């Protein structure tokens, strides 16, 4: 084989590689990023202050779970919302509104695997934000 054939074969292989990468790029899942990332970036200071408020007031919630129930206990909460976000699929995300200091969630509602919990609640006109990743088995 002369150098001309080798050059053409190398060029064809490289072009095939680039074409495959382009096809794979367009097939990537759309839920791998937030569509409203700009708005979230603008609200970052507010979220940071709410997270710091949890530390300052020492009101970090207690999270425990077994095979049947996921239990979240707050030191003081009037109303709030729990967002369960699944990193692998946005279709399985859940939102639970609550009132009171304790929330019990049936484990059958949540699939096994990694979940990001975003807890937002208020008490005495203060808003708190707490995030935690959990792995359910």
CATH topology of the domain at 51-136: Immunoglobulin-like
**Distance from first to last alpha carbon:** 58 Å
State the strand order across the main sheet.
4-3-6-7
Total helical elements: 3
Overall average residue pLDDT: 89
Along the chain, the helix and strand elements come as HHHEEEEEEE
Low-confidence stretches: none
State the fourth-level CATH superfamily of the domain at 51-136.
Immunoglobulins
* Radius of gyration over all CA atoms, rounded: 23 Å
- Helix fraction by DSSP (H/I, runs of at least 4): 25-40%
User: What is the highest CATH level, the class of the domain at 51-136?
Assistant: Mainly Beta
CATH architecture of the domain at 51-136: Sandwich
Secondary structure: number of strands: 7
Broad structural category: alpha+beta
For the biggest sheet, the summary is: 4 strands, antiparallel
Strand content: 35-45%
Shape, principal axes of CA atoms? elongated
């Amino acid at each position: 084989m002369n150098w001309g054939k080798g050059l053409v074969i190398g060029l064809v292989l490289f072009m095939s590689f680039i074409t495959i990468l382009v096809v794979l790029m367009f097939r990537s899942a759309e839920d791998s990023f937030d569509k409203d990332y700009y708005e979230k970036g603008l609200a970052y200071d507010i979220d940071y202050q709410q997270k710091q408020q949890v530390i300052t007031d020492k009101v970090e919630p207690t999270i425990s779970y077994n095979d049947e129930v996921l239990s979240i206990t707050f030191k003081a909460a009037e109303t709030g919302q729990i967002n369960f976000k699944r990193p692998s699929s946005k279709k399985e995300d859940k939102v639970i509104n609550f009132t009171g200091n304790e929330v019990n969630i049936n484990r059958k509602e949540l699939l096994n695997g990694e979940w990001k919990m975003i807890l937002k609640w208020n008490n005495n006109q203060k808003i708190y934000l707490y995030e935690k990743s959990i792995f359910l088995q």
